[in-house]
Every structure is written in structure tokens, then in C-alpha cells.
Design brief:
The structure holds 2 protein chains of 2 kinds. Chain A is α/β, with parallel strands linked by helices. Chain A has 2 domains: 167 residues, P-loop containing nucleotide triphosphate hydrolases (Rossmann fold, 3-Layer(aba) Sandwich); 65 residues, no CATH class. Chain A is built from 8 helices and 9 strands. Chain A has a 6-stranded mixed β-sheet, with helices on both faces. In chain A, strands 2-1-4 form a 3-stranded antiparallel β-sheet, with helices on one face. In chain A, strand 8 and strand 9 form a beta hairpin. Chain B is mostly helical. In chain B, helix 4 packs antiparallel against helix 5 and helix 7 runs antiparallel to helix 9. The longest helix of chain B is centred in the last third of the chain and has 38 residues. The two termini of chain B are 49 Å apart. Classes of the chains: A alpha/beta, B mainly alpha. The interface between A and B is medium-sized, with 27 and 21 residues.
Chain lengths: 256, 272
């Protein structure tokens, strides 16, 4: 019997809580009792106002910070702890290495794993092309635009072939037009690579453009996922379609 | 449309004026005018005073030729320069790894920082006598003094460099599979290079200060000795030669260092 893993749970959270104080009592929790199941290959959106702890949740999923209590299971083929998760940071300027060229940035993870130079170049070039950065291999991050920097971040993460992509408002700092292009590109890359994506945003429109499922987080402290929506619209999605508007109204109602 | 055409015509004479302004700015940039002005003021001031008190630029030049003819000026310069270079290099060799270590380890930082911030306010010159007592009046005490002058500037700058690395860079490196050692080698050190470079550059200045002091107190050669010795013979022009030579030495070392930085560390965006 062949296993089709598309719908197998990939990430399971049960009653996960996080407090930054050492002696957590009621009210000091950033996150409290978060329950969440994300399937393999799913595009999942965490939507909420700023300060609701969605980035904290993403950082816990990445293994950057520890949870205080609850269960977190990440199932993957790879036994390596953090390498099966790729993280795309909000600010490309603080995440990319400015002393390395685009190509060297993309090669970084492979170099750390001591992959042979020729193989490294080949893989890096594949993802540079996939991210639409061909011809910019030898440029330094300061020589390219904000949107391109986020492409570099994406290519850099994908070159390590992680199973899960964690994205923390990666398009938040881009202008509206570039953001739209990047959203389309991300959907294209996601369709081609079949990764599980968890994408954090506070922008309802962005959430509806991208997500298969949207989890709405309550205002902090003690945030949790209060509602989850399945978005049944085909890609590429139309901003002006009646369906889109209907979804928009429903999601917006949580923030009024 | 008509108004636009008129404006274009009006702008034309302005463009013709540009070349003069352009060359003037270029000349101004070289600093030549500042130097000519300074020499003029010096000459005029010297004209109205006793040469024993303020020798003219010409008298200083004559003094330099006098000191240079038997080679003593160049020997003194070489002595001071070699002392500074050795002490500065050794100081950097000790300070950079230590700064990296203190910067990356919170416990060590908390233990060491109060001491560093106390000792660094004691100027190198205050240590001259003590270092002579400890290391003798030979080269050793002078090298140690310059190491001391270099040490704190470079350590503190390196440490600041390490602390200013964004958490995102370290996290991203780790999530891409870098070990702790790889994070140090491929992220922390490259990110700290601009800070280390600035520290080393500043340390060069304080090294010159320290060596002149040491040579004045205890040496039979070097530019500091030359300046101090000139007082015995009332050779004020020699003192001026010493000052000018010090300025030139410091200036060329600084330029050379900045040039090397731009040439070899370009990708690290050093400030020079």
C-alpha cells in the first residue's frame, strides 16, 4: 500500500502556552492553550492584530524560543531538529548576510553542511532561478531592492530543502505593488515545491490571497486561535471576485 | 507648454557657471588650501616672534635637513614606527579574540565588563613608570605600553560589534544548520569586522600618543626622545620637526590602513 502523505498531520499543537515571566500566573501568558493541526503541504495563515503573539508562536514552531507548557509535535522524515524548518524573517536586512553575494547567501546552508562546491553551485542556481533572481547572482544585498531581498531570503531557505516554511510577515515592509507580485510568486513556488507553509500576517487581504486555511488569533495577552476558516478559492485568486469579498466580510467581522 | 520652454532657456546661463564651481570644489576637497593657509599664518606669526619661541616653517625645514643629514631623524622615525607597529599588532592579536569571546558569552561579559570600564579610563601614560619597573627600561616596557593603549579600544569595539549583530542573523544561520563554531566563523566574525577595523584604526592614534610619552621618559632614540632632547639645546626647530614628522607618520599610517581596508575588506562595508 502506498502512503499518500498530503493530508497527514505535519504539525500538531495541543494546549500550548507561553509566558516570558519566570513565574507564570494568570494573565502573564502571551499564548494560552493554543490548539492547532497543520497538514503536510498545507498553506496555513496565522492572522491577528499586532501584539497578539503570532510571531511568538512562529518562533516556537521554529525552535528559536521554548514553549512554557503544552505539546508540540512536528512530524517529518528528517530526524534533524531545526533543519527541516526554514524561516523567512520579516526584515531581510537583518536576516541576510550583507558581506555575501546573493549566490553566497543562497549557498550558506549547503556550505555549513559541507556540500561539495560544484553541487552547491548547482543547487543554489536552481533556487535562484526559482525565486526569479537569475542574473543577480553576484550582487550584494545592498545593491538590490527590498522585494528582491525577500526573494533571496526565500531562495536561501529553500536551498536547504526544508519540509516546513515559516514566514513572519515577509512582505510587510514592501510597497503594495511589489507585495502583490511577491504573493503571486510565493504561490507559484509553493505549488512547485509542495512545502508546508505557515505564514504570519496582520493583513486580511494578504491572508485571503494566500491561505488555504486561516487561523484567527485573539488580541493578547493570553492569545489563542479563536476561529479557523477553510478558504475554498482556486489559485490564482481574484481580489475583486464576489467570493473574495464574502470571505473578506466574514474575516473582517472578527476585528470590528 | 510655453512656460516650460521659457524655463529651459533661462536655465542655460546657469550651466555655464558650473565648471568654475566644480573645480573650486575639487581643489577644496584636496585640502591644499587649508595647508597653504596654515603655512601662511605660521610664517606670519613666526615673523613677529623670537625663533627660539616659534621657528618659521623655513627654519623648521632647515632643522629637518640638519637632523636628516646624519640620518638620525630617519633612525628616530624608524624606532618609533617599529615600536608602534609591533605593540599595535600584538595588542590586536590579544584584543580581537578576547573581544569576540567576551561578546559571545554573557556570563564572561558580566564578570569582565566592570573591570574593563574601570581600567580603560586610566591613560597609558600613567602606566609608564610602573611598566618600566616591571619590564625594565628596554623595548619590552614600551611594547607593553602600546599593547595596553591598543588593547581596550580594540576589545571594546570588537565586543560592541559582536553585540550589535541582529538576532535574526544568528537564528537564520542556526536554522540553516550552522554549528556554534560555524556561527562564530561565518556570521559573528564577518559581522564584527567593520567594528574591529574602526577599533584598530582608533588604537593606532592612541599608540602614537603612548610611544611618544614613553620615549620622552625613558629612551635614547625615537621621535619622542628627539623632542624631549631638543629642549636641552634650545633647538625649538627640532621640536617642530618632531611634531610635523609625528603628524606625517600618523597621517600616512592612517591613510595606508584605510586604503588596505577599502581594498581587502570591501564586502564588509568598513567605514574609513
Amino acid at each position: 500500500m502506498t502512503m499518500v502523505q498530503t493530508d497527514a498531520p505535519n504539525i500538531v499543537l495541543k494546549g500550548l502556552s507561553k509566558s516570558f515571566s519566570e513565574n507564570p500566573d494568570q494573565g502573564s501568558y502571551v499564548l494560552e492553550n493554543v490548539d492547532l493541526t497543520i497538514n503536510r503541504g498545507e498553506f496555513y495563515i496565522l492572522l491577528g492584530p499586532s501584539g497578539c503573539g503570532k510571531s511568538t508562536l512562529l518562533n516556537i514552531l521554529a525552535g528559536f524560543i521554548e514553549k512554557s507548557s503544552g505539546e508540540l509535535t512536528i512530524q517529518s522524515q528528517s530526524a534533524a531538529k531545526e533543519e527541516n524548518r526554514g524561516f523567512v524573517f520579516q526584515s531581510a536586512d537583518s536576516a541576510l548576510f550583507p558581506w555575501l553575494t546573493v549566490e553566497e547567501n543562497v549557498e550558506f546552508g549547503l556550505k555549513m553542511k559541507k556540500v561539495a562546491t560544484a553541487k552547491r553551485k548547482e543547487i543554489a542556481n536552481h533556487y535562484i532561478k526559482l525565486a526569479g533572481l537569475s542574473g543577480h547572482n553576484q550582487k550584494f544585498p545592498k545593491e538590490i531592492s527590498g522585494g528582491m531581498k525577500q526573494r533571496v531570503q526565500l531562495a536561501r531557505v529553500l536551498a536547504n530543502d526544508p519540509q516546513i516554511l515559516l514566514m513572519d510577515e515577509p512582505f510587510g515592509a514592501l510597497d503594495a505593488m511589489t507585495r502583490r507580485t511577491m504573493q503571486k510568486e510565493l504561490i507559484r513556488i509553493w505549488t512547485e515545491t509542495n512545502k508546508t507553509v505557515i505564514f504570519v500576517t496582520h493583513d486580511i487581504q494578504e491572508a485571503l490571497m494566500l491561505g488555504q486555511r486561516i487561523g484567527i488569533m485573539s488580541v493578547g495577552p493570553s492569545s489563542k486561535i479563536i476561529q479557523s476558516y477553510q478558504i475554498d478559492m482556486p489559485y490564482p485568486r481574484e481580489l475583486t471576485s464576489p467570493d473574495f469579498n464574502e470571505y473578506y466580510k466574514v474575516v473582517q467581522s472578527h476585528f470590528d | 507648454m510655453k512656460t516650460i520652454v521659457q524655463q529651459e532657456v533661462k536655465l542655460k546661463p546657469l550651466e555655464k557657471k558650473l565648471p568654475f564651481k566644480f573645480y573650486w570644489k575639487k581643489v577644496l576637497k584636496t585640502g591644499i588650501i587649508t595647508w597653504i593657509g596654515l603655512l601662511l599664518i605660521w610664517t606670519v606669526a613666526a615673523h613677529f616672534s623670537d625663533p627660539q619661541f616659534l621657528p618659521s616653517p623655513l627654519a623648521t625645514l632647515r632643522g629637518a635637513i640638519e637632523l636628516g643629514s646624519d640620518g638620525s631623524l630617519f633612525i628616530y622615525m624608524a624606532y618609533s614606527l617599529v615600536r608602534v607597529l609591533i605593540g599595535w599588532l600584538l595588542g590586536n592579536i590579544v584584543a580581537i579574540p578576547l573581544g569576540l569571546f567576551i561578546g559571545s558569552n554573557k556570563t564572561v561579559r558580566e564578570l569582565v565588563e566592570p573591570v574593563i570600564n574601570f581600567v580603560r579610563f586610566i591613560p597609558p601614560l600613567a602606566f609608564i613608570t610602573l611598566f618600566m619597573l616591571w619590564f625594565g627600561i628596554g623595548e619590552q616596557s614600551k611594547i607593553f605600553l602600546i599593547m595596553y593603549a591598543t588593547f581596550f579600544v580594540v576589545t571594546i569595539n570588537t565586543l560592541t560589534g559582536v553585540l550589535s549583530i541582529s538576532e535574526d542573523k544568528i537564528r537564520s544561520a542556526k536554522s540553516m544548520g550552522a554549528t556554534d563554531f560555524q556561527v562564530l566563523r561565518y556570521v559573528v566574525i564577518p559581522a564584527a569586522i567593520p567594528f574591529i577595523f574602526t577599533g584598530a584604526k582608533l588604537a593606532m592614534g592612541s599608540s602614537f600618543m603612548a610611544i611618544i610619552g614613553a620615549e620622552m621618559v625613558a629612551a635614547n632614540e625615537g621621535v619622542g626622545f628627539m623632542i624631549w632632547n631638543a629642549r636641552l639645546y634650545f633647538q625649538t626647530d627640532w621640536i617642530f620637526v618632531g611634531l610635523v614628522v609625528l603628524g606625517l607618520m600618523g597621517f600616512s599610517m592612517d591613510r595606508l590602513f584605510a586604503w588596505a581596508g577599502r581594498k581587502f575588506l570591501k564586502r564588509y562595508s568598513i567605514v574609513s
